[in-house]
Specification:
This protein is of the alpha/beta class. The protein has helices at residues 21-30, 61-74, 94-104, 129-133, 135-151, 176-189, 211-220, 240-249; strands at residues 5-9, 35-41, 80-88, 108-112, 157-158, 192-196, 224-227, 254-259, 262-268. It binds zinc ion (2 copies) and fe (iii) ion (FE) (2 copies).
């Protein structure tokens, strides 16, 4: 049996998404999803920064949790709703992040890298960093932190695993060996990888991650899941058929749901 699921959905609590949470749910139903999950940005205060235009604030967590539970109940006959989060991986802050994640009993955690040191490399305001540091160096540094994020054991799903391409910067060197290393690391760590369609709506115009990494995941037995990374209700479920097609074309035949941080239902992937 095939299912349609979208687990990467933000809310306006993070300061850079719009719409009401029920509008996201209504769109998920209209898009024919069987299950959705909210995964707003983990408060940066957890790892010692504060910017209410980038993530939720710690004081938003109760409202976030209550609203997801309330919507889950209201919509229980129409769609299943999961309580997730997109957590930044920050080297050296593993204990703080782990404590926070345990405290909230999420159904799943997407681990993402949006910072290299202090540099928010996916923020258009700081794009000059690619030229200054050198694109190949940035790619190398990014994938190293991605590998550390998987091996930290903190996360269930690795978010946009080649986000470093967001603005269309391309490295000189061939990434195939890097993708093999990454897939091997994901397999050892027991994480899954999202196939995130939001890159189609960014300058790069591609799904994250590259098809060669999706194929490497298949070779190493790393599960995949299609996500939209919606920051507006209309983007829930957006282009997921393309993500599922990429998965199927790369040899994946199954995907999964998560409940209480355990893979739960395994279902057939169909574009
Ligand atoms: Zn965001
Ligand atoms: Fe992200
Ligand atoms: Fe996101
Ligand atoms: Zn994201």
């Amino acid at each position: 049996m095939a299912m349609r699921v979208d687990y990467h959905i933000h809310t306006k609590l993070c300061g850079h998404a719009d719409g009401e949470m029920e509008e996201y749910v209504e769109q998920a139903i209209a898009a024919g999803l069987d299950e959705m999950g909210f995964s707003d940005h983990m408060p940066m205060e957890v790892w010692g920064r504060h910017d209410p235009t980038l993530t939720m604030r710690l004081q938003d967590m109760i409202e976030y949790h209550d609203r997801v539970k309330e919507l889950r109940h209201w919509y229980r006959d129409r769609i299943r709703i999961k309580f997730g989060i997109e957590a930044d991986y920050v080297p050296g802050k593993e204990r703080e992040i782990g404590d926070f994640l345990r405290e909230w009993n999420f159904d799943y955690v997407i681990g993402s890298v949006h910072f290299l040191g202090d540099w928010g490399f996916d923020d258009p305001r700081y794009m000059e960093g690619y030229e200054r540091r050198g694109v190949d160096n940035v790619y190398y540094a990014f994938f190293k932190v991605i590998r550390m994020s998987a091996e930290s054991g903190l996360f269930d799903i690795i978010g946009h695993a080649d986000l470093v391409k967001k603005f269309g910067h391309r490295p000189e060197r061939d990434l195939k060996p890097e993708f093999d290393d990454l897939a091997a690391s994901f397999a050892r760590s027991g994480v899954a990888v999202e196939i995130n369609t939001s890159g189609l709506r960014k300058p790069v115009g591609e799904i994250y991650p590259h098809p060669a990494l999706v194929r490497a995941c298949r070779e190493y037995g790393v599960p995949v899941i299609a996500t939209s990374d919606a920051h507006t209700p209309g983007d829930v479920g957006r282009d997921l058929h393309l993500a599922r097609k990429l998965a199927v074309d790369s040899g994946h035949s199954r995907s999964f749901t998560l409940t209480g941080r355990k893979r739960d239902i395994h279902y057939d992937l169909q574009p």
